[in-house]
Every structure is written in C-alpha cells, then in structure tokens.
Design goal:
The protein is mainly α. It has 8 helices and no strands. The radius of gyration is 23 Å and the shape is elongated. The C terminus is likely disordered.
C-alpha cells in the first residue's frame, strides 16, 4: 500500500508541472501584455518598461516560467492590480463564506445522493437506473455558476429583485 501511495505522489509531480505549463502558456499567449492595461492613458516607453520590469516581463519565457512555478509552490500570488492588496489576503478574507457555502452544498448533496444511490442500487439495470444516471451526469456537467445565476430566474423571483450588484455580492462574498 505504501509503494502505491509513493507511486501516486510521484505521478502527481509531472501532472502538476504540466498543468502549470499549460496555465502559464495560456496566460502568456491569450492574455497578451498586461503592461499596456496597467499603463492606461499614461502610456510612454519609460512607463511601459518600468511596468514590464516590475512584473518580470522583461525576462525570458523560461525565466518567467520558473518564477511562476516558484510563486505557485510558495503560494505567493502577488499583489492585486486593481486594489493593490496582497492576493493571499483577499483570498483569506473570502475563505469563510466560501467554506460555508461549500459545506452546506455538500450536506445537500449527501441528502440527495444517498437516497438516489439506494434507489439506483435497488433498480439496478432498469429504466430508473438509466434515468437517474443520465440526469446526474447532465447535472454534474453544468458549472455551479450556472446554477447560481439561474436560480433566481427559475425560482419565480421578479427580475428587479435580484440585480446584478446583489448577485455579484452574493457570488463574491
């Protein structure tokens, strides 16, 4: 059993490196140069060079990737561009509501999943089994954000009762 656990942990290392390389590549290729956005209306060559230097964009791509890996492994997420606060501080202030929401959803999931599993086990191979399997597969394939956004619509609340600001506050708090 110990050998199996060691093998699984060692297999996790190339997977994590592959995911980090994929994320870094996508941010580099698709994200563009954030220094143009940060410079705003005061775009001069000096301001652009200063911002690129602060962000480490003046270094080669392999150097940038190694810095990225180091930051991920040390949980150093840097400073928010919009609020100038450490990102770790922002995340830690939001962890309580997120865990509360996650815990309550886990409880609801268990209260629904256990009876459904018993029902499917009782009618194994039958029409009930197939219908429950299809419904659960479709439900798991949909992002949780879609459920959060669609709930007010399908619960019959008037459109003005849930504004974008209230929805945003609910999702972010």
């Amino acid at each position: 059993m110990l050998a199996y656990l060691i093998r699984r942990v060692l297999q996790m290392i190339p997977t994590l490196l592959g995911v980090m390389l994929l994320v870094f590549t996508l941010f580099t290729l698709v994200g563009g140069d954030p220094s143009y956005i940060l410079a705003g209306k005061h775009l001069t060559a000096d301001v652009l060079a200063n911002i690129r230097s602060q962000l480490g964009l003046d270094k080669s791509l392999p150097e940038q990737f190694l810095i990225f890996v180091h930051q991920v492994l040390t949980l150093d997420f840097g400073t928010s561009w919009s609020t100038q606060q450490p990102v770790a501080e922002i995340l830690s202030s939001r962890i309580g509501p997120s865990l509360t929401l996650t815990g309550s959803l886990l409880l609801v999931d268990l209260l629904v999943a256990i009876p459904l599993a018993a029902l499917v086990a009782y009618y194994r191979g039958g029409l009930t089994d197939r219908i429950v399997t299809i419904v659960c597969t479709v439900a798991m394939s949909i992002s949780a954000l879609v459920y959060i956004i669609a709930k007010p619509i399908f619960s019959g609340l008037p459109a003005g009762l849930v504004s974008g600001a209230r929805l945003e506050r609910f999702v972010l708090d």
